[in-house]
Design goal:
heterodimer, A: 214 residues, alpha+beta, Jelly Rolls, four-stranded antiparallel β-sheet, 7 helices, 13 strands, B: 392 residues, Serine Threonine Protein Phosphatase 5, Tetratricopeptide repeat, 15 helices
Chain lengths: 214, 392
């Protein structure tokens, strides 16, 4: 999305590679648009830095600060020379007025984040590792409207990403995936997983979900 | 979200009473506005399975999030009484909101609140505490980077801690760290930080908690089988185990492995930790066994690593589902290294093993001991929480 050039002189900030933009648990009052460069989102988990996501041009981060100050939920670090637009909560309203395009984009971003968060919650609530993994695959199949779910589908995801969605250790995910592939439910590659019958996984998870609360 | 936008040119659609406008799980790019009549949205709360019914107000949008985010409908929309709605394509919707930013602003606030609520539920499910101390957490992050030698990041975290929480109990140490970084004297991160044990690490997996250094460095020499230097608790423990299929603590043996060059010990330990963090528990276990098997540990650091390795072996065994072996390793820590920093962690893990073996009373006894062993750190709190839950 192209924003007015005036914006950069007023709201533009730049970061060098490896510079922290904000740190997890620091109070947050601003949100950011990436103009250029890459920003990585990390968390220190079990005494290791884990990269949760890498964002690029046109992405938004820190958007939870729109409503009120709350400690940041992750640390953001510039990966390259990064140009950002930085907006304080206080001038959010005037920003929207002057930039309805940006307002629309924020709506789309929030819609996606809400879905992601809700979906992740549903996966975490499943108890058995195999169901969690199946449901991550279900979720990925839902995200691509072009997939024909009646047939075999290819999901571009690696075990590490599945583990991160499922909130499981990679080794455990690997075990489940290997098991499913032995049963010929899936075909496992380094960068993708082919699911023979995703409807099957959907049914299994849905029936489990129904029985969870009865 | 009452919409004050003009909707000229968009044809209304009339539904009979009881019609379904869309089902949960449907995929569609349409967004609706209720003109007349009533629409009820029915969804299931993921965390409780509870059915939630919500009525759309006149003039309100519905179906917005799933259309914008391009994901399946999360609710079923059904009419009550004859109902008229406007059906908008994404392009129609975009055109409308661009002309009326107030609508977007209202929606954004609603969305932001929803996201916050879901995130909160997610944290609860993961067992993360809500009442976090941001100052302690900032300090933890600073320490992580400091020890990892990423001083730029460490400095940032410590500075933010000073800036926002100057009265924090971590402020003093943070200040010291900042000056150390400024003067380049960062070679020897002091391990004696009580503070750290107060700080939770990721609690998504109970078995994964890590216990940081305590100030005292009480090394007890290697105890051979049959040594009778047992505390009252270890006596209790033998009692617990006497009628237990999980095994007898006196059964543990030391593997006498090949001799290792001492200088490798800290290196080996780091390797093992990494393997563990990567989920390669069997491989991590091998390395820990190697450490335990190495003789002539001379430096204090090596002795400490030797102690810690016993605990880590227990954690590996636990991950590998070998309760008996895990029990033996933790029993070793509890019996032979009661002053070790992992003592409490070992108690907690034994509690977990008993809990998963459905031996509630024994689990409670160990949790209770872990909860009451000072200091009142994250392990104690976790133990207290488990105890409370088991007490029902």
């Amino acid at each position: 999305m192209m924003l007015d050039e005036r914006f950069f002189s007023r709201f533009g900030v730049e970061y060098s590679p490896n510079e922290i933009i904000f740190c997890e648990f620091e109070p947050g009052n601003e949100f950011y648009f990436i103009q250029s460069g890459r920003v990585k989102i990390v968390k220190i988990i079990n005494n290791r830095e884990k990269t949760i996501d890498v964002l690029t041009d046109g992405d938004v981060f820190g958007e939870m600060a729109i409503l009120e100050a709350e400690p940041r939920s992750a640390t953001t670090i510039a990966m390259d020379h990064v140009k950002l637009l930085k907006f304080h909560r206080d001038n959010f309203d005037s920003l929207l007025q002057g930039n309805p395009q940006l307002a629309y984009k924020l709506l789309v971003i929030f819609s996606k984040r809400i879905y992601d968060a809700k979906r992740r919650l549903m996966i975490l609530l499943l108890e058995e590792p195999q169901l969690k993994v199946m449901d991550v695959l279900n979720m990925l199949s839902e995200q691509d409207p072009k997939l024909d779910l009646q047939n075999e589908i290819t999901l571009y995801v690696n075990p590490q990403q599945v583990a991160s969605w499922a909130g499981m250790a990679e080794a455990d995910v690997q075990k489940v995936l290997t098991h499913l592939s032995r049963l010929d439910k899936i075909e496992l590659y380094g960068d993708r997983i082919i699911v023979r019958n995703i409807r099957d996984f959907q049914r299994i998870v849905a029936s489990k979900r129904k029985s969870m609360f009865t | 979200m009452t919409n004050g936008v003009g909707t000229s040119g968009i044809a209304p659609r009339t539904y009979k009473s009881g019609s379904i406008i869309y089902f949960e799980g449907d995929k569609s790019e349409y967004i609706y506005v209720l003109k007349h009549g009533r629409v009820v949205l029915t969804s299931i709360k993921p965390e409780s399975g509870e059915e939630v019914k919500e009525e759309v107000r006149q003039g309100e949008f519905f179906g917005v999030k799933s259309a914008l985010g391009r994901y399946p409908r999360e609710e079923t929309a059904q009419t009550m009484g004859e109902t008229v709605v406007l059906v908008l394509s994404l392009a129609d919707f975009e055109r409308l909101v661009l002309r009326n930013v107030n609508v977007v602003r209202k929606m954004l606030r609603v969305f932001s609140n929803q996201l916050r609520r879901i995130n909160k539920t997610q944290r609860t499910v993961l067992g993360e505490k809500d009442t976090i101390n941001p100052d302690a957490e900032l300090f933890r992050i600073g320490e992580y980077y400091f020890r990892a030698g990423v001083l730029q990041q460490a400095r940032y975290a410590f500075k933010k801690l000073m800036e926002h929480y100057p009265d924090s109990k971590y402020a003093g140490t943070a200040m010291e760290r900042i000056s150390a970084i400024a003067s380049g004297k960062t070679d020897i991160p002091s391990p004696g930080l009580d503070a750290i044990s107060d700080i939770k690490s990721d609690s998504s997996d109970l078995g994964d908690f890590s216990i940081e250094e305590k100030p005292e460095n009480d090394y007890s020499p290697r105890v051979k089988r049959g040594d009778s230097e047992s505390s009252s608790l270890s006596d209790e423990m033998d009692d617990f185990l006497s009628d237990d299929e999980l095994g007898n603590l006196d059964d543990f043996t030391f593997e006498e492995g090949g001799k290792e060059d001492e200088s490798y010990i800290p290196h080996l330990f780091d390797n093992a930790r990494e393997l563990f963090d990567e989920g390669q528990y069997a491989q991590a276990l091998e390395v820990y066994d190697k450490i335990i098997g190495s003789e002539d540990l001379t430096t204090d650091e090596e002795k400490k690593i030797y102690e810690k390795s016993h605990f880590e072996i227990g954690r590996c065994q636990m991950k590998l589902g070998k309760s008996r072996e895990a029990m033996a390793a933790f029993g070793n820590v509890i019996k032979n290294y009661p002053k070790s920093e992992n003592y409490k962690g070992a108690l907690f893990c034994v509690g977990q093993i008993f809990e998963s073996a459905k031996q509630k009373d024994k689990a409670m006894a160990y949790y209770s001991k872990a909860a009451s062993t000072p200091p009142n750190d994250q392990v104690s709190k976790q133990a207290a929480a488990r105890l409370k839950q088991l007490q029902g």
